[in-house]
TrEMBL record:
Residues 22-129 form the Impact N-terminal domain. GO terms for biological process: regulation of translational initiation. PANTHER family: IMPACT FAMILY MEMBER YIGZ, IMPACT-RELATED. One of its GO terms (cellular component) is cytoplasm. The lineage of its organism: Bacteria, Pseudomonadati, Bacteroidota, Flavobacteriia, Flavobacteriales. SUPFAM superfamilies: Ribosomal protein S5 domain 2-like. InterPro entries: Impact (IPR023582), Impact_N (IPR001498), Impact_N_sf (IPR036956), Ribosomal_Su5_D2-typ_SF (IPR020568). This is YigZ family protein. It comes from the Bacteria.
Length: 206
């Protein structure tokens, strides 16, 4: 069965990519994002950098699993679906998420037609992704485990056996651990701790 708890993304902005067609220039950029709020900031920066350009078309998607994906495509004044959707098509083609792709156009004096625009924006987005470093990440669930100090050995033994990652720990008379578990292992790990006497586990993603 294919693992559904992995996703692909980028961790840093791509180098600038340039595509030319009949004197029009298309500059492609990819940026890692985790929310819509970051989109405006990147667009504003590019508008300052390319203040003489004609269009700043973009598409973005964030979310770690298909059921949670949020996406948008923007043609920024180009004919309907000739820019934003071809850019978004490359996000789908490369199977990446949590990123924004912007293609900035300088008009070269010759109209490209809708077909030419679709090709140019698609290629600009593709080139930006080709020069990006794409990484694979896992979808993780966080649990809080609380227990008395006397149960420390029991808890730590399971964490070591199952190779679990501790994100935060408070080890006093009353102890608290926050652990990160891969989605595919989450229910079995929860069950192990949930059945232990005097040890409480809570899902922090609820």
């Amino acid at each position: 069965m294919e693992a559904t708890d992995i996703y692909k993304t980028i961790t840093k902005p791509s180098p600038e990519a340039l595509f030319k067609d009949r004197n029009s220039k298309f500059f492609g950029y990819a940026f890692p994002i985790t929310s819509e709020n970051e989109v405006k900031h990147h667009i504003e920066d590019l508008k300052k950098q390319h203040h003489q350009a004609r269009h700043w078309c973009y598409a973005y998607q964030f979310g770690k699993q298909e059921k949670d994906f949020v996406f948008r495509a923007n043609d920024d004044g180009e004919p309907n679906n000739s820019a934003g959707m071809p850019i978004y098509g490359q996000i789908q083609s490369f199977e990446v998420t949590n990123l924004l792709i912007v293609v900035v156009r300088y008009f070269g004096g010759t109209k490209l037609g809708v077909g030419g625009l679709i090709n140019a924006y698609r290629t600009g987005a593709q080139m930006a992704l080709e020069v990006s470093k794409i990484v694979t990440r896992t979808v993780n669930i966080e649990y809080r485990i609380t227990f008395d100090y006397k149960n420390m050995n029991t808890v730590m033994r399971i964490i070591k056996e199952k190779n679990l990652k501790i994100i935060k720990q408070t080890l006093e008379l009353s102890c608290e651990l926050i652990i990160s578990v891969r989605l595919k292992d989450a229910s079995s790990i929860f069950e192990i701790f949930d059945t232990l006497y005097e040890i409480n586990i809570k899902d922090l993603n609820d």
